[in-house]
Amino acid sequence: TALKAEHVDKEDTQAVANSVVRHVTTTLARQAANLDDIAAYQATALSVKDQLLKRWNETTTYHTKHAPKRVYYFSIEWLMGRSLDNAVLNLDMRNTYETATQKLGFNFEDLLNEERDAALGNGGLGRLAACYIDSMATLNLPGWGYGLRYSYGIFKQLISNTGEQLEAPDPWLDRENPWEIARIDVSYPIRFYGRVESIPNTSRAIWSGGTECLAVAYDVPVPGFATKNTANLRLWASRPIQGFDLNSFNAGNYEASVQSSSDAENITRVLYPNDNMYAGKELRLKQQYLWCSASLQDILRRYQKLDLSWEQLPDYVVIQMNDTHPTISIVELMRILIDEEEVPYDVAWKITTKVFAYTNHTVLPEALEKWPLPLFENLLPRHLQLIYQINLNFLNDVAKRFPGDMDRIRRMSIIEEGTPKFVRMAHLAIVGSFKVNGVAELHSQLLQSTIFRDFVEFKGRDSFTNVTNGITPRRWLLQCNPRLAQLITDTLGSEHWLVHLKQIAQLLPMADNAQFRAAFREIKNENKTRLAEVLASELNIQVDIDSVFTCQIKRLHEYKRQTLNIFGVILRYLQIKKATPEERKKFVKHTAIFAGKAAPGYYIAKLVIRLIVNVSKIVNNDPDVGHLLRVVFIPDYSVSVAEVLVPAADVSVQISTAGTEASGTSNMKLGLNGALLLGTVDGANIEIAEDVGEENAFLFGHLAADVDAVRYANSYNPTPLAERSPELAEVFKAIEANTFGDGHIYEPLLKPIYDNDYYLVSNDFGSYLAAERLVDELWRDQEEWTKKSIRTAFSMGDFTSDRSIQDYADSIWSIEPDPVPEN
Ligand code: 26Y
Question: Which residues carry this modification: N6-(pyridoxal phosphate)lysine (predicted)?
Answer without folding.
Answer: 669
